Amino acid sequence: MPAEFAMAAYRFGHSMIRNGYVLNSSLPAAASTLANVFNFVRVPRLPVFSNWAVDFNMFFNTAHPVGASFNNARTIDSVLANGLESIPGGSGIMAILAVRNLRRGLALGLPSGQGAAHVLGLTLLTSDQLTSGLPAAEIALLNANKGLLLAKTPLWYYILREAMVVNGGNQLGPLGGRIVAETFVRMLKRDGDSFMNVPGFAPSLPSSEPGTFMIADLLEFAGVLVQ
Fold this sequence. Notes:
Helices cover about 40% and strands about 0% of the residues. By secondary structure, it is mainly alpha-helical. The longest helix has 17 residues, at about 175-190. It starts with a helix and ends in a 5-residue tail after the last helix.
């Protein structure tokens, strides 16, 4: 698996995490913090309490909506949820997810965003684009050391900014999208059992035409939706 994917591009999802999640209608609002969500997958909270079951109607547009959609993902940008500044199991600066991502990228010698974009023949983000709409403190940091981070921007951060500048944070930009897509395509091609290696295969569900279903339909088929 390419390090550029594992340690940078695919970590775009970290910016989409919310500060809190309404998991079901029976839990009080105070239980919806990100810290409490982390407790769902940590000892001694396993097995999960019966009243902590996730109601997927609150996460996807299903046929059984519970009021409004409570848990839409955030846009892709360089702003992370407050709860990711103190992730479980971390200490000191390593409890800050953004620090972890940036340090790992540096330790593995990942190329800068500009370097990766140049190799792939993509248009590089300008300094103005990288700083557009950012708070003053973040702009000052990018401009420090004679603008080093604007000339050689860490790949993970560059991909987050690219998504926001090019697509308003609604999807990855040319560099991030290409790294993620090409990684998945290569994995599927190398898997002899994947749909790419089965002639004429078209995924379908009993209640839908081939290729017409969404994630909510898969959840309905799996029987995990509360009606």
